[in-house]
Amino acid sequence: MTSTKRSFGMHPNLLFDVILRQAGTLQKALLEGVMNAIDAGATECRITLDTHSFTLQDDGRGFQSHQEIEDFFETFGTPHEEGDAVYGRFRMGRGQMMAFGRNIWRSRQFEMDVDIKNSGLDYALTEHADIFDGTRISAELYEPIAPSELERIKNELRKFVAWAQIPVTLNDDVLSRRPEEAKWDFEDDNAWYSLSADRSQLAVYNLGVLVNSFWSGRFGMGGTIVTKRQVEINFARNDIQSTCPVFRKIQDEIKKRAGVATKKKTKLNDAERDMLVRDFLAGEADIQEAAKLRVLTDVNGRSWPIDKLLSVGHQFGGKLIVVPRGDQMVETAQRRGIAFSIDEATLERFGATDGHAFLARIQSACNTMMQTMPRNALFTAKGVLVQRMARGFADHIEIVDRDYLSAFVSSDYIALTHKDLTADQKILLDAVSTANSVLVTALRRTGYEDREYTQRKVYLGTSETALAWTDGTSNIWVEAEHARLLRRGYPGAYQIALTLLHEHLHSGPDTGTHEHDHSFFQGFHDLSGHPADPVGVAATRMVKIFAARLRRHGKKVSAKLLEQDDADLVIEETLKTAEAQDA
Ligand SMILES: Nc1ncnc2c1ncn2[C@@H]1O[C@H](COP(=O)(O)OP(=O)(O)OP(=O)(O)O)[C@@H](O)[C@H]1O
Ligand SMILES: [Mg+2]
């Protein structure tokens, strides 16, 4: 038997792949060039970019000798010595620029002509008599960029270098700012911080250069962090190494602030909920607060504390269902106490794939908490809630699905045709329809956010789950029972008019799922309270038409309806008296 020591080699093709395939985007490649310029001690870096080419020019030290060209330019992967560069790590980054086009590098007396696509790993090195101060890289792109794409690339590059340590210009516009001159929420030895609980992304700049924008839930807050000290990043330079001691301190600081902000806030956002749940699952939540963390989101988007699960047994017959936000049928089931719902985002928040796993995770987190908490903390009222959850939910919660609920709640929307309607319903419909046209005209007049409204035809219908529904374009069905509110006079009419407004703000069908985003609520809020009062105008007309039609058909007009006529009279007279007094 013979054994020999052998070592791995590298086929040149691997290098070729490394150069061509490490490249992400052109803007990332340009960022590599900027980082190299900073490493070369440049005081500025000028970039030009158009649809066919780019250049990067800096006034740094350049390649000082033939040896440097051989070791650092010609050879990929030559190790760095500790502390010889801020950003440079792998001696690979330049390959990204080479992947996008033929590169001509001019640096001091040297010129390197690299054309990976056509000449592979061979390049031409020329030595000039004259010295170029700094380094300039000019490239002709292998694939031209579409003009629309160009804008996107520029914007992204702007973001990448926003806080670079040296001025970076793009086609003569300055892209970067000095963090020292900007306004921050606070700073410490490690970083400048601008944090907000309402932002969904946290942009992290490693010494001024963007590492990535992270989902704010990962750290508990969104905003911007510019580090003052080097943070350790991964090979792809798009994430922070979890072991990095500098970033750990920064992270603690963010968490501290997020914690303070979260405790003060009565309404949490998803990022904050995600963060609280992470601590909860790790058994690190404060036991006095754990059970009351409002991190369950139901089908309506409302949030509930975790210990709501303890009341599912007696309030909802022990039934729990997981559904996407806005499921009409489940909304109704929950309203009627048939089942409690959590939405799919909640499941994700708890890292669970189904309802059973979700409950199991809560149970196990509560168990962890019990083991680590001092015993006296456990026997407070809130500690007891955690103890109860630690026993699990198997006895009193059953996970059900939509089929189960559909036995109790029909999700049918039945449109009534004209011949289905009673004489009374026809009169109701007449009044609601007219008020609907009045509403649309009034909404258009508000000019709110340039929104557009179509005249939609109104019908009556029956449904167990909805007050009204729409196809989002030309029809609205008002639930017949809901329309009967009009018999109560103006207050009823106002409710119906609000329902109509709700339907007009849906620009798609709302029968299956019925999700309301922020802009929906904002619109609903602003329009229902608009000074022109479109809802009030529609409601007033609804009552008047209803009373008039009843009279015409020789039907009794109730006192409730007459109140409106009376109120008008009273107001008119009050105004008259006031005017007389003024005169
Ligand atoms: N603008 C420049 N001015 C002077 N030297 C440069 C410039 N750009 C690159 N170099 C030299 O070329 C080397 C290789 O650059 P490259 O970007 O490939 O690797 P790196 O910056 O060392 O490491 P990394 O792979 O992390 O970017 C650098 O280490 C530096 O010595
Ligand atoms: Mg580099």
Structure in words:
With 583 residues, the protein is of the alpha/beta class. It folds into 4 domains: 12-176, Histidine kinase-like ATPase, C-terminal domain (Heat Shock Protein 90, 2-Layer Sandwich), CATH 3.30.565.10; 180-264, no CATH class; 284-405, no CATH class; 413-570, no CATH class. The chain is built from 22 helices and 20 strands. It has a 6-stranded mixed β-sheet with strand order 3-4-2-1-5-6. The chain has a 5-stranded mixed β-sheet with strand order 7-8-11-9-10, with helices on one face. It has a 4-stranded mixed β-sheet with strand order 17-18-20-19. Strand 12 and strand 13 form a beta hairpin. Helix 1 crosses helix 4 (94-100) and helix 17 crosses helix 19. It is elongated and about 110 Å long. The N and C termini lie far apart (123 Å). The mean pLDDT is 90. Magnesium ion binds next to helix 2.
What structural class should be given to the helix and strand makeup?
alpha/beta
Please report the distance between the alpha carbons of the first and last residues.
123 Å
Separate helix tally? 22
**Known CATH architecture of the largest domain:** 2-Layer Sandwich
Bound molecules: adenosine-5'-triphosphate, magnesium ion
